[in-house]
Amino acid sequence: xxxxxxxxxxxxxxxxxxxxxxxxxxxxxxxxxxxxxxxxxxxxxxxxxxxxxxxxxxxxxxxxxxxxxxxxxxxxxxxxxxxxxxxxxxxxxxxxxxxxxxxxxxxxxxxxxxxxxxxxxxxxxxxxxxxxxxxxxxxxxxxxxxxxxxxxxxxxxxxxxxxxx
Length: 165
Ligand SMILES: Nc1ncnc2c1ncn2[C@@H]1O[C@H](COP(=O)(O)OP(=O)(O)O)[C@@H](O)[C@H]1O
Ligand SMILES: O=C(O)[C@H](O)[C@@H](O)[C@H](O)[C@H](O)COP(=O)(O)O
Description:
Helix content is 53%, strand content 11%. It is mainly alpha-helical. The two termini are 23 Å apart. Adenosine-5'-diphosphate is lined by residues 2, 4-11, 73, 108, 111-112, 143, 146-147, 150. Keywords: ATP-binding, Kinase, Nucleotide-binding, Transferase. Belongs to the gluconokinase GntK/GntV family. It is an enzyme of class 2 (transferase).
């Protein structure tokens, strides 16, 4: 999870490969109206996001039924969105927030081309972002190191929380 450009797709796909499971790209679950809205420079509302989160959760449930686990890249900016995912996805859902400064992310987004997400929406993403609280099953990683190093940190964190029970 994290704002647009925080590295979710890059790091999530690496983690899925390392965990030998499917990777779900949250971007692929938006409906055409939501895509048009973002393309037009308008941030999504809660009402736009609930059905999107439900579609992601349904796909995750299917992947878990098939393979036992799944990695998802999803902005999941607000706690309510994460709670919705947790209640709809079977088993234990854990969140990794990729954190970085607005300046660094802006630089990365400016260098990246995206099918529908304009760089101009970055500030709205930071405005909505609620960092995971201490009572959420989550960790926050500073994404100022290479993607493979972040992947190693994620696997290490998952191993430590699993063995802690
Ligand atoms: N740890 C990293 N270090 C440097 N660049 C990164 C890192 N993670 C991602 N990037 C780059 O930043 C841009 C945004 O990453 P991306 O994975 O598309 O983010 P998101 O899926 O969160 O929108 C991409 O161009 C990607 O190559
Ligand atoms: O909740 C939202 O506002 C969107 O999901 C948004 O957060 C997401 O960032 C876009 O789909 C672009 O995708 P990237 O996050 O991969 O740039």
